[in-house]
Amino acid sequence: MSPSLVILGAGYTARFVLAHAGLRYTHVLATSRDPASRLSHIPSHQRMRFDLKQSETWKTIPSDADLLWCFPATPLHQVQQLVQAHDLRSHRVVILGSTSAYMEGHSLEYPPPWIDETALIAEEQARVEGEEFLRTACGATVLRVAGIYGPGRNPLDWIRKGRVGPSRKYVNLIHAEDLAEICLTALERGLPGEVYNVSDGTPHTWTEICRRAQDHWGIQSPTRSDANGPAGKRIANGKLLALLRSGHRQLRYPDLWSALDQLAGPTR
Ligand SMILES: NC(=O)c1ccc[n+]([C@@H]2O[C@H](COP(=O)([O-])OP(=O)(O)OC[C@H]3O[C@@H](n4cnc5c(N)ncnc54)[C@H](OP(=O)(O)O)[C@@H]3O)[C@@H](O)[C@H]2O)c1
Predict the structure, then answer these.
(1) All structural domains of the chain
(2) Degrees (nearest 5) of the Cα angle 62, 181, 147?
(3) What tens digit of pLDDT does each residue of 119-128 get?
(4) What is the enclosing helix (H) or strand (E) of 182?
(5) From the CB of 32, is ligand 1 less than 6 Å away?
(6) What pLDDT was estimated at residue 196?
(7) pLDDT given at position 268
(8) Which residue's alpha carbon is at the smallest distance from atom 27 of ligand 1?
């Protein structure tokens, strides 16, 4: 591991990574396209301007730093130019992808089959193209991340606001605190060029989650129940758990229900 970490695209996940990265790295830098306004909560010596679309901002990346890439790697030609200009092959790179990379498949099975890292991906998706380029050309480790939740991104609010409602669709989630730990573990121990699914390992249907929200907190979605919609996916996380175990770590929030209890705070 390098003594320096640069978090490219310091948004929601980066907040949690920043809270822990100092224990493993001597220098941690966070980037934004507009650091003065978007990263005002971070000490100024840790902020950096970086915009994939503006090559003049690329040279600020220290040549020996590990990189945690936290935004979609698009467009491909700019990712390729950055790799060439900055010799990203010499860096340890971990990139956050998405489980949306996996094709839905045509299975009529319900619940839907489990998806591990060998499943087909939609290579024509722009972000998948960028990730696959970084993985194969630079040995980047790709994390295919499920829905991220945590403080300020509370599924109970999504239900309350009608962004989601009861349906048979399976959703896979990962708590931001766990994701942060996983990013740091992947930088330290993840194999270059490998892919790891990142989820808590227990997919739930939105019907189950909405029922829980109703029974425990009296929260009801304004959205009507959808019994015949898409089945969603069930993301397997065995490879991730093995990676965490190899570093004597484990998920802090494997159970959505207790994580939601904590996010909701005291009920009465
Ligand atoms: N949210 C989810 O549930 C979810 C699920 C699966 C995967 N993911 C993926 O996981 C990653 C991290 O998610 P997140 O929610 O932490 O993301 P986020 O809050 O959107 O943070 C990423 C940051 O990257 C910066 N950025 C965007 N485009 C950029 C560009 N062209 N050049 C340089 N910087 C750029 C933006 O910051 P500035 O505007 O300050 O530059 C943005 O805030 C993302 O790739 C996301 O797509 C998210």
Answers:
(1) 4-264 (3.40.50.720)
(2) 105
(3) 999 999 999 9
(4) helix 176-189
(5) yes
(6) 99
(7) 42
(8) 71
